[in-house]
Amino acid sequence: MEIELKSQSDDEIVFIVRDAEVPFVNAIRRAAMVNVPKIAIEDVNIIRNDSAMFNEVLAHRLGLTPLVSDLDAIEGLLLPEDDGWYEPQGIAFSLKEVGPKVVYSKDLISSDSKIKPVYDTIPIVKLKEDEELIVEAYAKAGYGKNHVKWMPTTVCAYKQYPDITFNDDVDIDYDCADACPRGVLKSDKRSKKIKILDIENCSMCKSCERASINRAAANGAPDKSYINVGYRENDFIFRIETDGSMPPKEVLLTACDKLGEKADKFISFSEKEE
Hey, is 43 helix, strand or coil? Predict the structure, then answer.
């Protein structure tokens, strides 16, 4: 198996996996989504809420507010499998505001300077004149398999690597390049060929192939296409995006570690049964 890094930023990583199989790549995707721990507000005590927003909706918004959850922040915190996780404890947050104003995520005061909202400008609730909001909340580390607020990824997906070929025994169809909605193809009549500009951007929608077939049928040659769009069976383009709570590289590495732990448990169980 070969891995090639295509791009990496604070909240996105794109890489290519070659010579792998769908079950393996999909296992990494699922592990990244549901087995990587993340911090989110779990327990909310609403002492006073004069706003028009229901308490349940307010608690839901607080729970979905992304909190810093990198490896340094999450170290030492209890996980759902640990004893005492269900006790009313965790990283304490307080919120005490009086209207008129819009309460933002930056107004959440954390008891731990390392664990705070990722973004300061997430609106939580709007308070009118003299309306008061007093909230105490506790954040815990959890998994995406239990609730979406603990899911570190906003996008975690892969696609098989596109493969575009041309039929030399068919007349060149320059117009099929115009049917591509992503600008992957470009007609070059000077060199008498169609150029592939960015094959990795191809969504394999086959718009170009259908357009070529339709034109061939109109010219009396049904089922003849100049271009063929397929994919490489064991090559994949993998993309991970996060909500900013964790670097995507940390999500990927932690997911691989979790997958390795599951494999070790399975091996140990099998050896024990033998």
Answer: strand
Give the neighbor-by-neighbor strand order of the sheet with 2-8.
2-8, 12-18, 227-242, 153-166
Q: How confident is the model at residue 236 (pLDDT cuts 50, 70, 90)?
A: very high
Counting DSSP H helices and E strands in the chain, the numbers are 5, 12
For 42, the token pair is 């779990």
Calpha distance 154→142 (Å, rounded): 16
Over 90: is that where the pLDDT of 223 sits?
A: no
Each residue's pLDDT tens digit, 88-134: 788 999 999 998 999 999 999 999 999 999 999 999 999 999 999 99
How do the residues of the chain divide into helix, strand and coil, expressed in percent and rounded to 5?
A: 30, 35, 35
Q: State what percent of residues in the chain have pLDDT above 90.
A: 78
From residue 254, alpha-carbon distances to 78, 86, 157, 180, 268 in Å are 17, 24, 17, 38, 21
Count how many Cα atoms sit within 13 Å of the Cα of residue 216 in the half-sphere of its side chain: 21
Q: Look up the pTM and report it.
A: 0.86
Compute how many other C-beta atoms are within 10 angstroms of the C-beta atom of residue 190: 6
List, in order, residues 6 or more apart from 25 with CB less than 8 Å away.
17, 158, 236, 238
**Alpha helix segments (H runs only) across 11-91:** 22-34, 55-63, 71-74
Banded model confidence at residue 215, pLDDT cuts 50, 70, 90? confident
